[in-house]
Amino acid sequence: MRQDLTAPNLPFVIGVMGVGGLEDESVDMVAFRRAMAAPADRPEFKGRVVAVQTAPFWSDELAAIDRKHEKVGQMRYFLDAKHKDHANADGKMTEEQKQEFVKKFEADLITPAETALWKRGASNAGYHYLGCAKTFALMGKSFAEANLKMLESARH
User: Fold this and answer.
1) How far apart are CA 26 and CA 11, in angstroms?
2) What are phi and psi of 132, to 5 degrees?
3) What is the CA radius of gyration of the chain?
4) 70-85: buried (b, 16+ CB within 10 Å) or exposed (e) per residue?
5) pLDDT at 52
6) Are residues 50 and 40 in contact, defined by beta-carbon separation less than 8 angstroms?
7) In angstroms, rounded to a whole number, what is the distance separating the alpha carbons of residues 118 and 77?
8) Exposed, middle or buried: residue 92 (CB in 10 Å: 0-12, 13-18, 19+)?
9) pLDDT in tens, 99-145
10) 147 vs 11: CA distance, rounded Å
């Protein structure tokens, strides 16, 4: 890119994957994040490439609600599949009964406050940081600050 733009000192900010937040310490995620950040540590990029960790901006609160939504979806699947350990094991529930069962299951699982928070704070799936504007704003601010720091260092 620097070559194509004839800008050999163009600063780059790498937003290191933060989906799952700080709690996601799976071997794959740790390796992936390490690989994403690695170019910033290369001597030839010193002062012109910086990696910003985005995991601190992940909304654990929204993620907990998202997991509850997954349980609701799973319950609907169990009813449709006539899973032997669930309410429609005999397959006799009507569509309306299944809908009512899932509606009650959801109401018992997700509080009104959580529903309100979800409606206010999320608009997409986890792989898009739950579409949380606050998360994106915090990441953008961090990226801008990292870029400004690189630009200020380049002037001195």
Assistant:
1) 31
2) -80, 110
3) 22
4) eebeebbebbeeeeee
5) 98
6) yes
7) 22
8) exposed
9) 999 999 999 999 999 999 999 999 999 999 999 999 999 999 999 99
10) 7
Q: At what angle do helices 60-80 and 95-109 cross, to 10 degrees?
A: 160
Percent of the chain with pLDDT over 70: 100
Residues 6 or more apart from 133 whose CB is under 8 A from it?
121, 123
Greatest CA span in the chain, whole angstroms? 75
* CA angle in degrees (0–180, nearest 5) for 119-122-126: 145
Cα angle, residue 147 at apex, residues 145 and 153 outer, rounded to 5°: 100
Q: Domain coordinates of the chain in residue numbers? A: 12-58+132-155, 60-121
As given in the structure block, the two tokens for residue 60 are 């654990």
Q: Are strands 12-16 and 49-53 parallel, antiparallel or unpaired?
A: parallel
Neighbouring-strand partners of residue 12: 49
Matching residue, tokens 């799976």? 26
Give this prediction's pTM: 0.85
CA distances from 138 to 33, 46, 56, 120, 128 (A): 19, 24, 9, 17, 14
